[in-house]
Each structure stands twice: as C-alpha cells, then as structure tokens.
Amino acid sequence: MVKDNDTVIKFEVMFPVSGVEFGELVNMTADELEAWLKGEDSQSSGWTKDDGSGESVGHESGRKIIEILKKNPTKDPEKYDEDDIPHMRKVVSYNKRHLAQEETAKKNTDSKSYKSLKNWGHDAQKT
C-alpha cells in the first residue's frame, strides 16, 4: 500500500521531534550530501544501475535529494512540490527499511550499510 502525499511529508507519530518523516530521515544538509557524493566511498556502495553508467541507485538518489534540499533547505512541509513527493516516498521507505534491518550502519562507518544509507541522505552517526 502506497502512503498518500500528506503522510509522507506531514507529522507521523513515530517521529514527534521533527514532525516530518523525510526531514527526520534525511539528516544531512545539501552541502554535506554533495560533498559525500563526490567521494569514492559513495560511488562504490550500493547496487549499480542497469543503464551502463556505473552509477549506483543510491548515488542517483542522493543527487535527487540534493535537488529537493536546495529547493527547500528548511524542510518546510508546505514547500515541497508534487515533483518531489515520489522520490521522497522512496527515500523514506528505503531509510526506514534499512535502519530497521541494519544495526551495523550505526556502529561501523566502513560498512556498506553506513555508506549506502549516507547516499540516501541519512548519516547514522548523527542519530
């Protein structure tokens, strides 16, 4: 079942601190994520896309997250546009699923889990 747009960007009981699911899970700034994506660790983690580019799915996601953050750096729920919602939905789903499955990311910055989550805008060392 796909969450509706309001559920993706508005208050969730699970995240009472920030009130925004995307804003809580994407805990890196656009500048932090941009710097991370330029590094070799970012480019060497995750599944490679099928288009022959050599880029990972997570690396591509990170570039899209940067665009969203630059348009709305304060993560104001009222300032996301309809074009942002589908990718925000993917980011929320990916991060929640992998954070629930992987304790390694929180403990080991050399792990594939940590690097992959960081491509998706979540620095497990910040939480």
Number of helical stretches of at least 4 residues: 8
Q: Assign a percent range to the helix content.
A: 40-55%
The major beta sheet can be summarized as:
none
- Strand percentage, roughly? under 5%
Q: What is the straight-line distance between the termini?
A: 28 Å
| 3D shape | globular
What is the gyration radius calculated from CA atoms?
14 Å
User: Quick one: how many beta strands?
Assistant: 0
Helix and strand sequence = HHHHHHHH
Mean pLDDT over the full residue set: 81
Low-confidence stretches: 11-19
Structure class: mainly alpha
Explain the overall architecture.
The chain is mainly α and 127 residues long. The radius of gyration is 14 Å and the shape is globular. The protein contains 8 helices and no strands. The longest helix has 17 residues, at 85-101.
Search tags:
127 residues
List the SSEs and their pairings.
Blueprint (H helix, E strand, L loop, with lengths): L4 H5 L11 H5 L4 H8 L2 H4 L13 H15 L13 H17 L2 H4 L4 H8 L8
Helix pairs in contact: 3-5, 5-8
Summed up:
The chain is mostly helical.
